[in-house]
Every structure is written in C-alpha cells, then in structure tokens.
Amino acid sequence: KPGEVFVHRNIANVVDPADTSCMAVLEFGIDALKIEHVIVGGHYGCGGVGAVCSGAQLGGALGKWLAKVETVRQRHATELKDLAPEAAAHRLAELNVQAQARQVEECEIVRAARARGRVVTVDAWIYEVGTGRLRDLGFLSGMRG
Questions:
Q1: N or C: less crowded end of the chain, CB within 10 Å?
Q2: Element (H, E) at 38
Q3: Of 37, 44, 59, which Cα lies nearest the Cα of 13?
Q4: What is the enclosing helix (H) or strand (E) of 126?
Q5: What's the angle, vertex CA 41, arms to CA 24 and CA 58, rounded to 5?
Q6: If pLDDT is split at 50, 70 and 90, which confidence band does 144 have?
Q7: Contacts of 90 (CB under 8 A, 6+ apart)
Q8: Are 114 and 145 in contact (CB under 8 A)?
Q9: What is the pLDDT of residue 22?
Q10: Tell me: the pLDDT tens digits for 95-125?
Q11: For 126, left (φ over 0), alpha (ψ -120 to 50), or beta?
C-alpha cells in the first residue's frame, strides 16, 4: 500500500555513517515511522560497481564515494580475480550489498533502537534487472531486538 515503503537511493547503495542524508533516512524510518525491516538492495549492472571493476580512475566526489566500493573489491580481490569480467562485476555487486548491510547493522541509529528494545532486522537483496528476479543474499542480521 502507499506509504508502506520508505526508500533512500544513491550510487552503488553505499551506506556511510558520514552521509547525513542516508543517516537521516534511517533515523526517520526507524524512530519516527517505527520500521522494523531495513533492506539494502543492489542490482546487477550497477554503474558504480562497474566503474570500480573497470579500474576507472575517478576523482572528485564520485571517486571518494566509490572508494567505499573499491575497499570491498580489495577485501575480496582473491575471490574476484579468477572470475570473468561480468561474473566479477556481479559478484562484487553482491559483496557490496552485503558490506553495506553490515554498515546499516553497525550504525548508531540501529544499535540505539535495539538498545531500546526495538526489533530492527537488516537484509541484503540483489535485483537482476533483465529477468526481474530479486534474490535474498542470506545476510544474517544480528542483534535482533
């Protein structure tokens, strides 16, 4: 129904505690709207993830933003190096969604809500644009209520 989904979108679904827009959305959703379920959703073919996979030299604000995805790529470099380019981009999209779900899980807003006894679950999902398939990546939200 209208109003049952509250959405925040950005490039490569990065969750950065320094991003006041993202944190304000989480705070409003959890504290004011009393949401109990946060979904970090990414998609295959993500331009931000693709730029990181291609090794594009990005400067400015975009380069700083995508550095968070580059960190995920570096952390999983061994796994990604043997994959074909498209498969590596798909896998990095999945790994990035899981990493960003962890960021939500660890942010002060979620931790404070849980400390007050609120149940807040976090999931990581990936969307395949070409087929319309949505897949749960099996992220296990911790510290539930």
A1: N
A2: strand 37-43
A3: 44
A4: strand 121-128
A5: 80
A6: very low
A7: 44
A8: yes
A9: 97
A10: 999 999 999 999 999 999 999 999 999 999 9
A11: beta
User: Which of 15, 42, 26 lies closest to 118 in space, CA to CA?
Assistant: 26
| Separation in Å, CA 15 to CA 21, 26, 79, 94, 101 | 10, 10, 23, 14, 8
Q: Is 49 helix (H, G, I), strand (E, B) or coil?
A: helix
Nearest-5° Cα angle at 53, 59 to 83 = 165
Average pLDDT, the chain: 93
Could you tell me if 120 and 79 are in contact, meaning their C-beta atoms sit under 8 angstroms apart? Answer: no
Dihedrals φ, ψ of 144, to 5°?
A: -75, 120
* Separation of alpha carbons 77 and 42, rounded Å: 20
Query: What percentage of the chain reaches a pLDDT higher than 90?
Result: 87
pLDDT digit string (tens) for 19-36?
Answer: 999 999 999 999 999 999
Q: From the centroid of its chain, how far is CA 105?
A: 11
